[in-house]
Amino acid sequence: MLGPPGSGKGTQAHIISELYGVPVVTTGDMLRDAAARGTEHGLTAKGYMDRGELVPDEIVNAVVRERLSRPDVEKGFILDGFPRSKAQAEALDRILEERRLRLDHVVHVTLGDEEIVGRLSKRRSCPRCGAVYHLESKPPRRGLACDECGARLVQRDDDKPEVIRHRLEVYREKTRPLLDRYARMRIIREVPGDTPLEDLPGLLRSILG
Ligand code: AP5
What we know:
Number of strands: 6
Strand order of the largest sheet: 1-2
Shape: globular
Bound molecules: BIS(adenosine)-5'-pentaphosphate
Number of helices: 9
Radius of gyration: 16 Å
Strand content: 5-15%
Order of helices and strands: HEHHHEHEHEEHHEH
Largest sheet: 2 strands, parallel
């Protein structure tokens, strides 16, 4: 899943996961989890995340390499938020080559900056299971409790307008250039990030086959 922050990558990744029965590997969630557990990598990562900077490639690449060695990814997986830099794309190429795997699709989720800033200010996330809500388009059923696990929903530290704007700059500088790489491989599938939620399963299935 490739696209600017808040475009809807995580939301679409979870729909694809339900449609095809494969796990989502979300680097942002894994790094936030490591920070909450207070691991050395997690505490280093938290500083970068709170400022809206990319976490250093060597940390993220190690986290992804370990995650992709677990048995539940054997039938396929969805990468949400990785790769995000040239060095990460090259690390992914190496991991896939070692396991004799190939990328089938790169879903490019598109959305304008103003829409993103407005949208992220109303996002609420579950700190326990990672479920994502929106106060208007996808509100939780009971107050601010997660529908999935009941934990109290929170607003992410990096969802403040000034940090969101910096994340958008970082996306344009470091991540967006990866689109050229995947365009050459002819595996980019464009999905508008403002597609009505109820239309996404049908649209994604028709695009991914
Ligand atoms: P990460 O957690 O990956 O954040 P992000 O890429 O900035 O993306 P978001 O999670 O903010 O948004 P999203 O596109 O998934 O949108 P969502 O579905 O939630 O990364 C955070 C930080 O971690 C980075 O800044 C960096 O520091 C670090 N990091 C992570 N990966 C890294 C890497 N590989 N390398 C280095 N550092 C890394 O949707 C947003 C909102 O919109 C939600 O409220 C949702 O309900 C709503 N919504 C979604 N789709 C729709 C729709 N179709 N209609 C109406 N509402 C919708």
